[in-house]
Amino acid sequence: MGDLHVSKKVIALAVTVLAVVAGVAVFWPDRDRPATATPQPSASFHNPVADARAEVKALFDTQAKALVAGDERGWLAPVDPALHDTFRVMYRNLRALEISHAESDVVLLKYSESELLIDVVLGYCLGGVPCPAWAAGDAEGAPKLYYRTVVVPRNGSYTATTMSEADYHNHLSPAPWQTPGLRFVRGERVIVAAPAGLAKHLGRVLPVAEKAATVADRFAAVSGTPPQRYRVYLADNRAWKSWYGGERRNWVAGYHKALNRTGSDLVLRADAVLGSDRRLRETIQHEMGHAVTLLPTVDWTEDDEDWLVEGIAEYIGSAPAAAPDTGSATVLRRSFAKRGAPRSIALPGLTEKSDELTVDTLYAHSHFAAACLADRYGERKLLDFAHLVLQRGQPVDTASRGAFGRPFAVVDKACVAWIRKKI
Predict the structure, then answer these.
(1) Residues 6+ apart with CB under 8 A from 114
(2) Domain spans of the chain, in order of start
(3) DSSP state, 228?
(4) Which of 48, 196, 229, 420 is most buried, judging by how many CB atoms fall within 10 Å of its CB?
(5) Pairing mode, strands 230-235 and 190-194
(6) pLDDT tens, 199-240?
(7) Can you give the pTM of this predicted structure?
């Protein structure tokens, strides 16, 4: 049979409905009788394309179940031995990260009797979190891995013989767990992972991360439920430029990556955080602050309300120290001397062109803004306000009236004065 091309819809990741579906009965009237006569017995038609896709889909469904069950042999069963090393990396890393759910979809791109070209979509959830129902697209449902492969008939089934990147945008790729040679340590609340070259630092990072998790858990318990598990990745320069598309802002020492409402990953730039224990602790605690205040996010992007996003994380990151007793106070004295005091706590968001003093001022001033809100209205109301803005997507004035019982303009003016008095 010649090649049959099947169109794909990139966003929906849906396979085009086939014109003839296996099992449909077609009735033909007796031509020697009126059209209203009783039809002859039906004949069933099978479509080889639909049958092949269904068989391959079942094969990868079984593979996903083997991954969750801890069956490495079953996970490797559908792939050629030449691909075993690559798939072992995926298997062992995902198992180390406590994978709790996995399922697959298959997009058929090209069919012939000798081979099928397909995209495989692997959805996964880590750490025992409730996994959402399957949804198409990289930003919905469970986080996903997409890859392209050729499967060929072999021994009564199909076998994947190649592996390459699928032609889809995926903001969660490449994930850290796709890295060969990744090393892991596990504590009560945290899993820390790093490339082999940084493995010697894992024993130092884990106890710091465990203490930070205790602090973050306290803040999470005030406004919600702590994460099932914190995952902290220590990145070398190569990983920093690669994981999740790479981080290009030179002033970033770590970041929080939400996994589609199923938890998050915290990534640290090793050469920026390992210089001192204080820097390491504050960075981890800051990123955990994001993990307990930004999930699940609604109507929030990286540029919206930077002052509150970073302010609440700095407040959590420096706990139990008060803002005036931290480096934020030193930064603001220098900033105020050079540029004057800001007239609002809601500073403009940062951009890639922001200079060092602008970046430092945003973090320090926002830290003091969060501290002011906690001092004047109580820590619980500060967290309620952050929840309304960052998780429910409310405008700051609406959230201010709901949390503090006052318009944001009133709260803003009072905190500007509070910060000037402290500095």
Answers:
(1) 152, 153
(2) 4-30+43-169, 182-296, 300-423
(3) S
(4) 229
(5) parallel
(6) 999 999 999 999 999 999 999 987 677 889 999 999 999 999
(7) 0.86
